[in-house]
Specification:
- This protein is mainly α and 361 residues long.
- The protein is built from 16 helices and two strands.
- The protein has helices at residues 6-27, 45-57, 62-74, 85-117, 133-138, 143-148, 165-187, 189-201, 212-227, 232-236, 238-255, 261-286, 293-304, 306-319, 324-348, 351-358, and strands at 206-207, 210-211.
- It has a two-stranded antiparallel sheet.
- The protein is globular, with a radius of gyration of 20 Å.
- It starts with 5 loop residues before the first helix and ends with a helix.
- The relative contact order is 0.16.
């Protein structure tokens, strides 16, 4: 089969915006922040449990799913011959590199303004005003290099627009795609099993500076594209994937914050498959019609939300009475509100600006 089926295209389209909203939920997480110490499992069990379920479990499938989509879309027509790679990479300049630099430049200005107006709110070791040229360059790669000095170590965190670590790692993966294709052609499913195993077991957390999570799910998507099966293989075992995912979710809720890395990653892996399986079922059974503005604006929402979400959740929680249900409403409502707000901002952007900021998506 050459190209993606209509069902697979629709599945990607209906998932893009909800996944972007889930990314916002990752960044409004109230459990890990040390600003609201009164929010604990004992004092506010509903809020704490809801936050843990959404931000720590369900939302964690969002970025891996985007990686899988990216691998599948790159290899949507199967094996890429040597003469096509130059064209593929050239297209990624406008769809990946241009929005990556544009958003990080925007965020440099936003952080500089924030540090001037609210100096205690932005937690970096240096202010933008004190940056030298080297710091400006490193802020486009990893803020770890800016805060802790440059070194030959992996990209531990994202650039100044932190969620764009996904785009940074994706650009590296696209450059490595010919090697990934070669390994898939030679080793087939064995390569995928090895990469998934390396990530699941934590044997290597980073390969060539980037996280193995991106390599794992990008390779899974590439495998589905090269084999020409799309999401059909996921649909075939959809009920099993959903059952395993729900079992892992229950297990994680039972152990609460006690860390079990293998369980966390297993939950994410089967959560991605379950999410795709459910979306495929919805497409096949209901054939939903989604306004184009939501999938088209999903990357804009993803790239623009970070500091807005942090500011909004902290402001809302600080101003709200310490009543659990009110705080839980704040937590649930703010990501949806910001998503809708950013969609409207995207709608108001001129067409050329949309192409720059969203990479022509």
């Amino acid at each position: 089969m050459k190209g993606l089926s209509i069902e697979d295209q629709m599945t990607i389209e209906i998932l893009r915006f909800p996944l972007a909203i889930l990314v916002i939920y990752i960044h409004v997480d109230l459990i890990t922040t040390n600003q609201f110490t009164y929010i604990t499992a004992g004092s506010m069990p509903v809020l704490w449990g809801g936050d843990f379920l959404i931000s720590k479990i369900i939302a964690q499938i969002s970025v891996p799913t985007f990686f899988l989509f990216s691998g599948l879309l790159l290899f949507r027509n199967g094996v890429i011959v040597s003469g096509e790679w130059k064209m593929k990479w050239k297209k990624r300049i406008s769809s990946l590199l241009l929005p990556y630099f544009t958003w990080n430049i925007i965020y440099l200005f936003l952080v500089a303004i924030s540090q001037f107006c609210l100096p205690s709110r932005i937690g970096h070791s240096k202010t933008i005003a004190s940056y030298d040229m080297w710091d400006f360059l490193l802020s486009f790669i990893s803020m770890d290099y800016v805060d802790n000095g440059f070194g030959v170590r992996p990209f531990l965190i994202g650039p100044i627009d932190l969620p764009l670590w996904f785009l940074r790692d994706l650009m590296v993966l696209v450059m490595l795609a010919p090697i990934i294709q070669f390994l898939l052609f030679r080793l087939k499913g064995l390569y995928v099993l090895v990469i998934v195993g390396i990530w699941l077991l934590g044997i290597y957390k980073h390969i060539l500076f980037i996280g193995t999570i991106g390599l794992c799910f990008f390779s899974l998507g590439a495998y589905l594209g090269i084999k020409g099966v799309g999401f059909r293989s996921i649909m075939r075992y959809g009920k099993i994937f959903i059952f395993i995912f729900l079992t892992c979710v229950i297990a994680r809720l039972c152990i609460n914050e006690r860390s079990c890395e293998l369980l966390e990653k297993t939950t994410t892996l089967f959560g991605v498959f379950a999410c795709i399986a459910v979306a495929c079922h919805i497409v096949n059974k209901f054939n939903p019609r989604v306004s184009n503005i939501y999938p088209k604006s999903s990357f804009f929402v993803y790239a623009a939300h970070y500091y807005l979400s942090i500011f909004a959740i902290r402001l809302a929680i600080s101003m709200s009475p310490k009543v659990e249900l009110i705080l839980f409403f704040d937590y649930l409502f703010i990501p949806i509100f910001l998503g809708i707000l950013l969609v409207q901002a995207y709608r108001l952007c001129p067409v050329l600006l949309r192409k720059i900021l969203a990479g022509g998506r």
